[in-house]
Design brief:
Blueprint lengths: L1 H18 L25 H7 L6 H5 L6 H13 L7 H16 L9
Helix pairs in contact: 2-5, 4-5
The structure holds heme C.
Length: 113
C-alpha cells in the first residue's frame, strides 16, 4: 500500500523537474575572499606579490615576527628548497629587501602600533 502511493508521487516530482526552467547563473565567476590587509608600497613589493602570495596572504607576510636579514634569506631559501616555491635569485633578493624594509617601519603595515 505504502509502496504504491510512492510511485505517483515520484512521477509527479519528475514531471515537475521536467517543466522547471533551466537554471542560469547570473555570474559564474568565483570571488575569493578579500584579504583586508594590503602590502605597503616599497621596492620589492611586486616580487613578494608574484612569488609569495600564491601560498601566503599579504597579511600573513606582514604578521611575521621581526627577524634579521639573514633570517629572511634563510626563510626564502627554505621556501624555494623545501616548498619548491619558484623564486629566482633576483626576486629572492628583492623579497628579502622588501621584508626587511617593511619590518623596519611597522607603522606602514597598519598592524602594529
Ligand atoms: C609553494 C608554496 C609557498 C610559496 C610560493 C611560499 N611559501 Fe612560505 N611557506 C610555505 C609553507 C608550506 C610553509 C610552512 C607552513 C606554514 O607556516 O604556513 C611556509 C612558511 C613560511 C613562513 C613561516 C616561517 C617558516 O620559516 O616556516 C614564512 C615567513 C614564509 N613562508 C615566507 C615566504 C616568503 C617570503 C615567500 C616568497 C619568497 C614564500 N613564503 C613563498 C609555502 C610557500
Amino acid at each position: 500500500m505504502m509502496r504504491r502511493a510512492l510511485l505517483p508521487a515520484l512521477l509527479l516530482l519528475l514531471a515537475a523537474c521536467d517543466s522547471a526552467p533551466e537554471i542560469a547563473f547570473a555570474d559564474a565567476s568565483v570571488t575569493l575572499p578579500d584579504d583586508p590587509v594590503d602590502l605597503p608600497d616599497g621596492p620589492g613589493r611586486d616580487a613578494v606579490l608574484e612569488n609569495c602570495t600564491a601560498c601566503h596572504s599579504p597579511s600573513t607576510m606582514l604578521q611575521q615576527p621581526k627577524v634579521s636579514r639573514e633570517k629572511w634569506e634563510s626563510i626564502v631559501g627554505k621556501m624555494r628548497k623545501l616548498y619548491k616555491a619558484p623564486v629566482d635569485d633576483s626576486a629572492a633578493a628583492q623579497v628579502v629587501d622588501y621584508m626587511v624594509a617593511v619590518q623596519a617601519r611597522p607603522e606602514a603595515t597598519g598592524l602594529s602600533p
